[in-house]
Design brief:
Elements (H helix, E strand, L loop, with lengths): L5 E4 L6 H10 L4 E4 L16 H11 L2 E4 L7 H14 L11 H12 L4 H8 L6 E4 L9 H13 L3 E4 L2
Parallel strand pairs: 1-4, 1-5, 2-3, 2-4
Length: 163
């Protein structure tokens, strides 16, 4: 394992240039997309749609990996959607994931997560991988659960890149 840190980033709150500048300033060398659906609606964040995102990452020399098995299933996303509706919170303004989401996601995606395999095979040679989804706040997104579990297994520090 060559990783020195685990990073996370969301797209909300960034401009296109600000987003890619943040990745470069953080010395990211592998971009791990942990979204199930790799597209966003509207023009503001169109740069984070899969094809455009991958093209720009190639230009700036950052490897792209889609790790779909770390994305929450539709059922897990629906559980959070119900919590948000009960609390009257919009997805983009959510500050933290609900306990039910965390429990379901841990059972579904993290229970069998092998950090050594992921870092040594999937992300081979990467020293500063960033885990990406859309939410601005890491605590409002499953990427924080992924990095916490990987950190627990490896002892690597976690850095959240926030606009």
């Amino acid at each position: 394992m060559t990783a020195e840190a685990l990073l996370s980033i969301g797209v909300y709150g960034y401009s296109e240039e600000g987003f890619f500048d943040a990745l470069q300033r953080a010395r990211v060398d592998c971009f791990c997309d942990v979204r199930a659906r790799r597209g966003l609606r509207g023009s503001q964040y169109a740069f984070a749609n899969s094809q455009r995102l991958q093209a720009r990452l190639r230009i700036i020399g950052i490897k792209y990996v889609h790790i779909k098995e770390l994305s929450p299933s539709k059922q897990v996303r629906e559980a959070q959607k119900q919590i948000d509706a009960q609390q009257g919170v919009l997805k983009r303004s959510r500050e933290e994931l609900g306990d039910q989401f965390k429990l379901f996601y841990a059972k579904e995606a993290l229970e069998d997560l092998d950090a050594s395999r992921l870092l040594n095979i999937v992300l081979a040679g990467s020293s500063r991988p960033v885990f990406f989804c859309v939410e601005k706040s890491p605590k409002a997104c499953h990427r924080s659960l992924v990095t916490e579990e990987l950190s627990r297994q490896t002892g690597l520090p976690v850095e959240h890149i926030i606009p």
